[in-house]
Design goal:
This protein has 153 residues and is mainly beta. It contains 2 helices and 16 strands. The chain has helices at 120-128, 136-139, and strands spanning 15-17, 22-24, 27-29, 32-35, 38-40, 43-45, 52-55, 60-62, 65-66, 69-72, 75-77, 80-88, 93-95, 98-105, 110-111, 115-117. The strands form 2 sheets. Strands 1, 3, 4, 6, 7, 9, 10, 12, 14 and 16 form a 10-stranded parallel sheet that branches. The model is unreliable at 1-6 and 130-134 (pLDDT under 50).
């Protein structure tokens, strides 16, 4: 009755990147994708409003993620765009900006970049790079680069 059911998100796993797998290149999928290994490349959904990517504690993605539903418990180095829902579990580490419609973050998760709330329509427009979007320029921006703090001051 009061469970944490994610409305519209795909609950099944259709594709898997295993723990000992290093994949270089872009991934375009539909349904559910579980990443337990390392992906170097961008990840996008095949016109699937219910697509979900889950990055496990062992998973690592270097590249942009553009999926309606994103669950992260591993590491992402790149911008994250979710037109529906982003969930950061306690071991999540994101080095880049997170563009979201709905956002959930557990204690211990880390975002080294900006959190930007946008509507589903604004996010779709920005990802497609249509001129006039307030996010069109940001959508093509590099992930945030942070300097190490100087605690000796």
């Amino acid at each position: 009755m009061f469970g944490s059911k994610k409305k519209g998100a795909s609950k099944k796993i259709d594709s898997l990147v295993g723990k000992e797998t290093n994949l270089s290149g872009d991934i375009d999928f539909s349904g559910g994708l579980l990443i337990d290994g390392k992906v170097t490349g961008n990840i996008a959904a095949n016109n699937d409003d219910h697509a979900t990517v889950t990055i496990s504690e062992n998973g690592c993605v270097t590249g942009e993620i553009q999926i309606p539903n994103i669950i992260i418990n591993g590491t992402v180095e790149g911008n994250v765009y979710a037109s529906n829902h982003v969930e950061l579990a306690k071991k999540a580490r994101v080095f880049g900006n997170v563009y979201y419609n709905l956002f959930e973050m557990a204690m211990g998760a880390e975002v080294n970049g900006n959190l930007v709330h946008v509507s589903e329509d604004e996010l779709t427009t920005a990802i497609e790079g249509k001129p006039g979007s307030r996010l069109a320029m940001e959508a093509k921006a590099e992930p945030a680069q942070l300097e190490e703090p100087d605690f000796k001051k």
